[in-house]
Structures are given as C-alpha cells and as structure tokens.
Amino acid sequence: MSNPGGAEGKELKYSEIKNLPVVKSASSPIVPLLTIILACTRPIPVADCFFSIGYPAYLYLANRFRFDQNAPGIAKGWIKTPQLREGAGPWFKNYLLTFGTIGVIFPLAAQVFAPRSIADAAAPHLYLLMCQLVMETASRAPEFYPLTQLLVPIGFNAYRLLSIRTWLGTAWRSFGAAPRQRAVWEAFGLALACANAVVWTYNLFVFLLLRVLPQYINRDEFPEAKVSWKGQVFPVLDKNLD
Q1: DSSP secondary structure of 16-81
Q2: CB neighbours of 201 closer than 8 A, spacing ≥ 6?
Q3: What is the C-alpha separation between 122 and 31, in angstroms, rounded?
Q4: Rounded to the nearest 10 degrees, what angle do helices 30-41 and 116-138 cross at?
C-alpha cells in the first residue's frame, strides 16, 4: 500500500516536511498495538516474525550506511515525499480503500467473528501487512531516502505473496473438507485468500514495479550519498569522494 503523502510530485522544503501531519502520524498506537496483539494471540510462523524484524533492520542500515539518511536531499533544501509522485487523483483514494478493505478490514473481521481455523489461516498475512504499515509510517520521515522508503512496500509485498500462497492452500483444503451445507465460513476464507492473492500480485508486479518505481530512477531529482565499495562488496560513506 502506497500513501501519496498529499503532495503530487511537488518540491517541499525540509522545514515544511518536518511539520507535515503524515510524518507525525507515527505516534498513533492503533496499528502497532494490533500488530502486537496478532503476534501474541495467533500462530505466526517464525520465518514471518524474523522477516518482520530483519527486513526493517536491513532498510534502516541501508538508509544509514548507503544513503546517508538522505543527507544530500536534505542539504539541497527539498525532498519529494509522496510514493506515487505523478498521476495521483481521486482514483488513488479508491485504490487505497479497496486494498485496505480486502487486505485489512476483512481479515481483521475474520479474527473477531470467524472460527479459529479461518482466523488463524488469515493471521500471518495480516500480521505482515500491519508490520508493513508500521514501517511505511516510520519511513515517511525526511531522513529516509526516497528509494529506501519505496523498498518498504516492495519488499513486504513480495514476501507476503509467500504467505498468501500458504493461506490459499490452507483455505482450499479447509473448504474441500467442510460439509457443503455448513461451509459458509470456509467459502469466505477461500474467497478472501483469492482476493488478496489477486490484488497484491497486481500491486507488486504492476503498480509498484511498473508505475511507481520508474518515477524514482532519476539521480538529478534524488541525489545519492557518495560511497565507495570496500572490496567491491560493502558500501562505505565517503563525503570527500568526487
């Protein structure tokens, strides 16, 4: 899920960005609290827990040691915060609403109302998506290099497709084993898993990779930190490098 940030490709002063409400929204405890509840009450695979911690840690390290916490962009006096910089409009709000409903609202409702087996099957994907939302909020700070910010939804979305695959298999087996006259929840779980498979596959391979990513491949607009590669393997910040 990509939040436009409310500024469609406009240049914003660093002092203005620091005061944007979208940056301050990181203080909202609702999403982190729901994420913790899911982690404590649902069977989340160890690999998913590891990814939910390891991938954000990797992004923070990359942002610090490869992109110098966006220092070149901040020094230039402006940075571009919205992930979808061009083409955002009323349709984009509907896009976010659709994905939020399918990916968050319905799975959350399943955690409350559905039988435990249906809720447990949906929980890992929901947990990872909530972790993504937490990280997306944190990465909107001006100190995050724009490309690193974009890697949040790309990386999480790619990994969540593995979780959706497991969810689909579980939902299919559950639906097949349930008596047809009492398979309402099983049918709901299968339909929800299929819907998430469709929308998140499209979001990754079409929206993020084909529409959003090309808007960030411009070093004139997004100046990089100067680095040298130690042993041609590890990046090392070198502010004196020509």
Answers
A1: HHHT-HHHHGGG--HHHHHHHHHHHHS---HHHHHHHHHHHHHHHHHHHHTSGGGHHHHHTTEE--
A2: 161
A3: 17
A4: 140
Provide the domain limits for residue 29.
12-237
Mean pLDDT value across the chain: 83
pLDDT of 107 > 90? The answer is yes
Radius of gyration of the chain (CA): 20
The secondary structure element, H or E, covering residue 14 is helix 14-18
> DSSP per residue over 81-142, as a string?
--SS-SS-SHHHHHHHHHHHIIIIIHHHHHHHHS-HHHHHHHHHHHHHHHHHHHHHHHTTST
Place 16 in a pLDDT band, splitting at 50, 70 and 90: very low
Amino acid present at 143: E
Mean pLDDT confidence for 137-147: 89
Q: Does residue 213 lie within any of the structural domains?
A: yes
Residue 242 within a domain: no
For residue 25, the tally of other CB atoms under 10 A from its CB is 12
* The pLDDT of residue 152 is above 70: yes
What confidence tens digit (pLDDT) does each residue in 173-207 have?
998 888 876 689 999 999 999 999 999 999 999 99
Number of domains in the chain: 1
Q: What is the dihedral of CA 150, 204, 102, 156, to 10 degrees?
A: -50
**How many degrees, rounded to 5, is the angle at CA 140 between CA 137 and CA 144?**
125
